[in-house]
Amino acid sequence: MAEAGQDHREESIMTDHATIVAAIHRYCRVQCEKDREGWASLFAEDVVQEDPVGLSRTQGRAQVTGPFWDNIVRNDVQIWLTDEIIVCGREAVAIMACDIGPADRRRRLAPVVDQFVFDAEGRIAVVRGFYNLG
Q1: How far apart are CA 94 and CA 42, in angstroms?
Q2: Are 20 and 118 in contact (CB under 8 A)?
Q3: Model confidence, pTM
Q4: Dist. CA 45–CA 29, nearest whole Å
Q5: Peptide bond into 111 cis (omega under 30)
Q6: Average pLDDT over residues 121-129
Q7: Which own/partner contact pairs does 78-86 have at CB distance under 8 Å and 24+ positions apart?
Q8: How many Cα atoms are found within 13 Å in the side-chain-facing hemisphere of 111?
Q9: Per-residue pLDDT tens for 72-121?
Q10: What is the Cα–Cα distance from 87 to 16, expressed in whole angstroms?
Q11: How confident is the model at residue 18 (pLDDT cuts 50, 70, 90)?
């Protein structure tokens, strides 16, 4: 009987892992496609976003999908994964690169390392972006 319960737990962990990986892929895709509704669907109502860590902190879905989103669109962010997503429980780290800025000042940031914490519904509760600005 214990084996059946253990199998169920392993299946739940695999499902959580798959949900998190899919959400991070969507996180990249919706930024590139400028899909505001898709972006909004990723986040918990009380999300905390630090991007970049130590310089900018945004709290709440309304802010992440408002002023922060406007910066993504204005800077024509194109972001992609450069390595495998690492998932531990409800947390994950994604290693990425991005092109950002208007055409006359476009630059590439790499590596970009985002740390995610997901809530029980599979939404992003915390995301922290680490990268060199200089």
Answers
A1: 15
A2: yes
A3: 0.87
A4: 21
A5: yes
A6: 96
A7: 78/31, 78/32, 79/28, 79/31, 79/32, 79/112, 80/28, 80/32, 81/24, 81/25, 81/28, 82/110, 82/111, 85/20, 85/21, 85/24
A8: 10
A9: 999 999 999 999 999 999 999 999 999 999 889 999 999 999 999 999 99
A10: 9
A11: very high
Report the residue count for the chain: 134
Look up tokens 């790499």; give the residue: 110
CA distance 124 to 114: 12
Task: Spell out a b/e string for 102-121, using b for 16 or more CB atoms within 10 Å of the CB, else e.
Answer: eeeeeeebeebebbbbbeee
What lies within 8 Å, CB to CB, of 112 at 6+ separation is 79, 95, 96, 97, 98, 129, 130, 131
Give kind and range of the element (H or E) at residue 84: none
